[in-house]
Design brief:
Length: about 450
């Protein structure tokens, strides 16, 4: 019994101990329950355990979490999420830039020295003679001059294979000369039943358009044009004004004023004409342009010399009248002019300027069958129809003569050369050694 009693007392002594343990267990469960984010207490609680009152607490405001660095994905996941890039055309490899072509050397420019009385001899291979039925061959020569730059691409020419060429009496082939410094074409065509000889010339330098006086000086004896031609190596030559046939007019030669006499010639319509201004005068500049002074214009010797210096005049021509000026025909002489029988039908000769260093010479001569009959105004109108910017008349009739490659080309009135005092001519500037070694 005592053992049992002791056993019962022992149980009594151990009960408070158990109770204390249960209390602390419940208290611990309550703390876990109210802690944020805590897991709710287990449902299996001893029925005999007394509920534990808990004191409510304020829920703390959650703090904004600081940004964190992204966690790199594993290599396997990265490979799975990578997209396949779109295919693009490959960038073409640029071709290598070609080396610049060397700049061609400019062509040499040739001229005939001032004061020279002869030109270089012409290249025999440059001459061409074609029948009028093959006039296209002459057009090919013109195209060659364009290709070489002697003629501009937009520069008009008078010659054409469609012209009304003369095929009857006094027939002549079309004749040409070409080298890189000069183009010359001469032909005959029919106008108003008359045979008209035409010469078209383009030169590279104005020094190739020259005047020659007999004896290469002033007031020397006259000579045949064919002899003057041979002494110059001219490609083509023609008569000029026959200055020593009359005392009036102006003469400029190699830039020097040689004649301009201030003597009374006559009084006409109240105008006191002097020897120096009783004719229209034509002046050729060293750039190859044609300038005029009109008859009746008054100037002194010194004023004329100043005009020559200011305009760089190379030589003059005194016959006239002026036919075309600034593309307009002229009839300023009012039916009277000291020379040339302006109102009558007559043989005619004259020269016009088409463009820079580009000229047209025309001669209307008698023939064995028919006498040429053009008034001066008719001659002027025909010149204008060819597109000249200016034109000037020369001595016509028997004086009018054209020599090409040292042969007379036109029919001369009375079929006989006349002695003259001067001529104008065109020559090549190409040195002989150039075409010989070409």
């Amino acid at each position: 019994m005592e053992r049992k009693r002791e056993s019962g007392q022992s149980m009594k002594r151990s009960f408070p101990t158990i109770s204390c343990l249960l209390f602390f267990l419940l208290l611990l469960c309550g703390l876990v329950w109210v802690h944020p984010g805590a897991v709710p207490p287990a449902a299996a609680v001893t029925e005999t355990a007394a509920p534990v009152e808990t004191v409510p607490t304020e829920t703390p405001v959650p703090e904004t979490p600081a940004p964190t660095e992204p966690v790199p994905e594993s290599p396997d996941e990265t490979e799975q999420e990578q997209t396949v890039p779109e295919e693009t055309e490959p960038t073409p490899t640029p071709e290598p830039t070609p080396a610049p072509e060397p700049t061609p050397e400019p062509k040499p420019h040739y001229s005939i020295p001032e004061g020279a009385v002869v030109a270089p001899p012409a290249d025999p291979a440059g001459f061409l003679s074609v029948p009028v039925s093959e006039a296209q061959k002459a057009e090919a020569v013109i195209q060659r001059a364009r290709d070489d730059g002697l003629l501009r691409e937009d520069e008009a020419v008078v010659f054409s294979a469609a012209l009304p060429f003369n095929t009857g009496s006094h027939y002549e082939d079309i004749k040409c000369y070409y080298d890189e410094t000069i183009l010359a074409i001469i032909w005959k065509q029919i106008e108003d039943g008359n045979t008209l000889t035409c010469l078209e010339v383009k030169v590279a330098d104005a020094s190739q358009f020259r005047r020659k006086l007999t004896g290469d000086g002033y007031n020397n004896p006259s000579d045949y044009l064919s002899n003057l031609d041979l002494s110059t190596n001219a490609v083509v030559s023609m008569n000029a004004d026959f200055y020593n046939f009359r005392v009036y007019g102006v003469l400029v030669y190699d830039g020097k004023l040689l004649k301009a006499e201030d003597k009374r010639y006559l009084v006409h319509n109240g105008i006191d004409y002097r020897y120096y201004n009783c004719l229209d005068n034509c002046y050729i500049t060293r750039s190859g342009d044609m300038l005029f002074t009109y008859f009746g214009e008054a100037f002194t010797w010194n004023e004329l010399q100043q005009f020559i210096d200011d305009n760089d005049i190379a030589f003059s021509l005194s016959f006239g009248p002026i036919l075309v000026d600034n593309y307009e025909t002229k009839y300023h002489y009012d039916g009277w002019y000291p020379v040339a029988e302006v109102n009558n039908g007559y043989s005619r000769a004259g020269i016009g300027q088409l463009d820079e260093r580009h000229y047209l010479y025309m001669s209307l001569n008698h023939s064995s069958e028919k006498e040429a009959r053009w008034t001066m105004m008719e001659f002027a109108e025909f010149f204008q129809s060819r597109g000249v910017r200016c034109a000037y008349a020369f001595d016509g009739g028997q004086t009018s003569e054209i020599i090409f490659n040292h042969e007379i080309y036109n029919y001369i009135d009375r079929n006989s050369e006349r002695w003259v005092s001067d001529m104008i001519w065109f020559g090549t500037a190409l040195p002989e050694e150039v075409w010989k070694n070409g």
